[in-house]
Amino acid sequence: MWRQRFAHGFLALLVAGLLASCDNSENDPEPTLPTVPSTTTTTIDVTKVPATIDVPYVQAVMNALDKVTGDAVRVFVAQRGPNQEWYETFRAVFEEDLFRKLESEFGNFAARRLEPLASLPGNPQTTVKRLVDSSSTCVVAEVDRTFGPLLREPPLPEAIPGYVQLSIKRPERDPRGRNMTGWSLVADIDAKGSSIPENPCA
Amino acid sequence: MRLRILISFGVLASALLISVRESQAAEGPPPTPVIIGNGTSVTGEAEAHSVRQGKKTSELREGSLSLSTTAPGPPLVYRSEIRWVAETQSTCVSITQQEGDPNDILNIYMEMAALDWARSTTPRCGASMPPPAVPSPGAAAQMVWRDQMKLPPPEPYIAPGKAITGLRAFMEIRGPRTVTQTFNVFGYALTITATASSYDVDWGDGSWSRGVTSSGGPWPSGDVRHVYTTQGTYTVRVLERWTGTWSVAGGGGGSVDGALSSEGRIDAFPVVQVQAVRNR
User: Cβ contacts (< 8 Å) between B57 and chain A: which residues?
Assistant: First the structure.
């Protein structure tokens, strides 16, 4: 039960309520990435946005984001708390609202002597099941997702159904290019009790 | 009638499994109240067994067990965070207060972290509140005792791995009887020593030996023994009660209040019947 509660607590941090509008630019000019035609090669270039966004592409993006997130958490654990590399990487991977929640939670982990985190954390793991909506600047996908590999006590169940929302990464959030994809995570929500707008990328 | 109550209660990464038996033939004194959490105590005809990985909530199905919570304070808890300040390339500590159940295991963690950081010289983040009062070393030791002490389970053994009906079974309770652990909390370097004070033995057939102070021994001199009357397979459990003392670097110390417990068991312990056979 403790592990489940922790899992829910951790995931709750990532909940941004309803998925945010993809229009996160507000005062900023909308960032764009070069679009390239879809190819049939097995190598998926996650730095670019294909003409047709499909599940394999989003899976590749999520794999890359999970990898860089895991790298940053390993730095966090090794340094026994936040440092510039962790800060820059999390800012590059997570859009502002989500970043603030995670900054608070990881800050609390540090104050608690990293107690919830594994001594050698793995990467979050995401399985993209289907695309709910997509555009050249927004992707909403239904996923199974777990943060268990990061934690000392992996949560149960191992992967929790949910949704992720990606938006085109704003260059100012990643000046050092720590996130090699063109995308940032805007929302990461537990499917339970969540509602998704009809066309979230509209 | 035998009543069994299972109560799980989160105390850091431990829980207590409590079984209550109604009017069992006790071979020792009644158990003393056992503190199972942050200010929560169990009284009644209860046996508390520590197991790992528990939860906060209690579940009381039947029986006459009372739980009481004496933890004082408003439903607010402190929370601390260590943040990175990119402008100064350094960390700061944020201490805030938020609504929360002071007995919730997650909040206990946060509270202890906040109190810990209250003593630190790390710069405060901008929105940080004045640091909370830091507990005395004795109060800190008490919190650690309740929430962080990890106690080894007793290791019961009955030679030669089975018993015979009508004959005495001799239990040996193995495992350390003293455990010393050190903690750095709230800026104090605490040393806490737990000492086994007594055992309660559930022989698995409805019989108990309570308040045993000896760790037993093998035939013929062991003094923790029992005669099974019926063959079968039994779960034999031993509850080890621990009392504690603390000391702090720089001087000072004392006893901590409340007994903790840990449980060991022999699963599927066979009790066989021996029949004499006469050959003509």
Answer: 1
State which H helix or E strand residue A109 sits in: helix A96-111
Count of H helices and E strands in chain B? Answer: 2, 16
Using one digit for the tens of pLDDT, what is the confidence trace for B187-202? Answer: 789 999 999 999 999 9
| Residues B195-219 as b or e (16 or more Cβ within 10 Å = b) | ebbbbbbbbbbebbbbbbeebbbee
Rounded to a whole number of angstroms, the distance from the CA of B257 to the nearest CA of chain A is 25
Q: DSSP string spanning A150-192?
A: GBSS--SSSSEEEEEEEEEPPGGG-TT--S-SSEEEEEEEEST
3-state helix, strand, coil in chain B (%, to 5): 10, 45, 45
Q: Which residues pair with A138 in a beta bridge?
A: A167
B116 in reach of chain A (CB within 8 A): yes
CB < 8 Å to B10, chain A: 1-2
B174 SS3 class: strand
CB pairs under 8 A between A and B: 64
Q: Which ipTM was obtained for this model?
A: 0.77
CB of A101 within 8 Å of a chain B CB? The answer is: no
Residue from B52, B53, B77, B82 to probe the interface with A (highest A Cβ count within 10 Å): B82
Determine the Cα–Cα distance for residues B110 and B116; give it in Å rounded to an integer: 10
Distance from CA of B106 to the nearest CA of A (A): 8
- Entry pTM: 0.57
Q: What is the Cα–Cα distance from A105 to A97, expressed in whole angstroms?
A: 13
Three-state secondary-structure class, residue A43: coil
Reduced to 3 states (helix: H, G, I; strand: E, B; else coil), residue A111 is helix
For an interface test with B, the pick among A102, A112, A115, A172 (most B C-beta atoms closer than 10 Å) comes out as A112
Contact A11, A162 (CB under 8 A): yes
The closest alpha carbon to B226, from B216, B213, B241, belongs to: B216
Contact partners, residue B213, CB within 8 Å, separation at least 6 = B197, B198, B199
- By the 8 A CB rule, do B152 and B121 touch? no
Alpha-carbon A11 to chain mean position: 12
Contact B106 A9 (CB under 8 A): yes
Q: What is the pLDDT of residue B140?
A: 85
Give tens-digit pLDDT for B208-250.
Answer: 999 999 999 999 999 999 999 999 999 999 999 999 999 999 8
Q: Do B82 and A153 touch (CB under 8 A)?
A: no
Q: Please determine, for residue B107, whether its predicted confidence score (pLDDT) is greater than 80.
A: no
Q: Would you call A6 and B106 a contact, using CB atoms and an 8 Å cutoff? A: yes
